[in-house]
Amino acid sequence: MTKARDDYLLDLEASRRGYAINRLCGSLKDPENRRRFSADEAAYCDAHGLSPEQKKAILERDWTAMLDLGGSIFYTFKLAVLDGRSMQDLGGVFTGMSSEEFTAAMRSGGRRFG
Amino acid sequence: MAEIIWGLATSHVPSIGAAMDHHKTDDPYWKPLFDGYSPARAWMAAHPPDVAVIVYNDHANAVDLDLVPTFGIGTAESYDVADEGWGPRPVPPVAGAPELSAHLVGELVDEGFDLATFHRLDVDHGLTVPLSVYCPDPGDAWPCAVVPVLVNVIQYPQPTAARCYALGKAIGRAIRSYPRELKVAVFGTGGMSHQLAGARAGLINPEFDRMFLQAIESEPEKLAALSRDDYIREAGTEGIELIMWLVMRGAMSDRIARVHDTYHVPASNTAAALALFEDLGEA
């Protein structure tokens, strides 16, 4: 899995680069699109114009690679929920912790920086 | 004339809504947060507004990256509850206040705030969770009409804190110039410190949050002077939502009284807070 940078800012360059990923993930707010995605994920990626790297990140659920390729957490989270995953699961992925460890860190007051 | 009777600052974390929707507010995880809401809820229930102006951000539900308005306002008669990818929240649709919306648009454009107008807007957790914080059991209908005001906090560069505060001042003047007897509450939503993605995910900065909770009442200019990078560094990439509290604070008069506040970590991956202020009116 890809290692996360400290922060991801969805600036215009990232928005342009990640357009296909964000459009695909955003489309999952529609129940019919959720059904179509689940029926054939690869075909759904192709229909949304994802690059090979973006398609690989989606199919392999490489949450950090999605961010590196311009994805926004508010969009990719819709895919996570479709998989039955939580924001604590993703927090664990980004920080190299298990979901349980990340949840415990939040319950003990969160992670402190600086 | 219309008057602003109170202002509510509150986090809008989706799981706060889910905790109410799934009757988990007495669970040990959630009880401290909801206990903290109680005095504010009782006070607000005794001071019901006719209209709530709710300043919030959409989260990839009604607004996508094809078109990102920096500021927007709903002008519709009603707003459906969005399916955010896991089905709509089981809460009533939101009644609009289109005549007040039209008044605000006219006044704000004349003041130089060129807001995008939304005639169709499915409202997501950013708006419905704060409504539930105000009114946990709405039954078939929310107790007030709503004017949604949208702020882009997702795509960089977000508007400056100073611009949000100035927008709030203009909204306050516009509300007070509305020639109808109307009681209005203003909600500023989002925050407090949190970061969802990246290696700093899980960031919480209680010192910054406590400072902000105090200064929003007495020193809003200090908060308005903070830069975009200040907010992101101190409060996290999503903590910049706090600029929406400044819209609420700007709309209120200089004379306000703190009714109640509460601060709790965590709600999901977020530091959650509520701060309620009564507007005492212009001196």
CATH class category name of chain B: Alpha Beta
Rg of chain A computed from alpha carbons, rounded to a whole number of angstroms: 15 Å
How would you classify the helix and strand content of chain B by structural class? alpha/beta
Q: Tell me which oligomeric state these chains represent.
A: heterodimer
Please provide the count of β strands of chain B: 10
Give the count of structural domains of chain A.
2
**Total number of helical segments of chain B?**
9
Roughly what fraction of the amino acids of chain A lie in strands? under 5%
Number of domains of chain B: 1
Largest interface: A-B, 47 and 38 residues
The CATH superfamily of the largest domain in chain A bears the name Dioxygenase LigAB, LigA subunit
Stretches of chain A where pLDDT is under 50 for at least 5 consecutive residues are none
Strand order of the largest sheet of chain B: 6-3-7-2-8-1-10-9
H/E element string of chain A?
HHHHHHHHH
Shape of chain A: globular
Compressed to H and E, one letter per element, the order of chain B equals EHHEEEEHEHEHEHHHHEE
**What does the main sheet of chain B amount to?**
8 strands, mixed
Strand portion of chain B: 15-25%
Chain-averaged pLDDT of chain B: 97
End-to-end separation of chain B? 16 Å
Write up what this structure looks like.
The complex is a heterodimer of chains A (114) and B (283). Chain A is mainly α and 114 residues long. In chain A, 64% of the residues lie in helices and 0% in strands. Chain A folds into 2 domains: 12-83, Protocatechuate 4,5-dioxygenase, Chain A; 84-114, no CATH class. Chain A contains 9 helices and no strands. In chain A, α2 crosses α7 (73-82) and α8 (87-95) packs across α9 (99-107). Chain B is of the alpha/beta class and 283 residues long. Chain B has a single domain, classed as Protocatechuate 4,5-dioxygenase, Chain B, CATH 3.40.830. Chain B has 9 helices and 10 strands. Chain B has helices spanning 14-21, 31-46, 98-110, 125-134, 161-176, 206-218, 220-224, 228-235, 243-251, and strands at residues 3-10, 51-56, 71-74, 78-79, 94-95, 116-118, 145-151, 183-189, 256-267, 270-279. In chain B, α1 (14-21) packs across α4 (125-134) and α3 packs across α5. The mean pLDDT of chain B is 97. The chains are: A mainly alpha (114), B alpha/beta (283). At the A-B interface, α2, α7, α8 and α9 of A face loops of B.
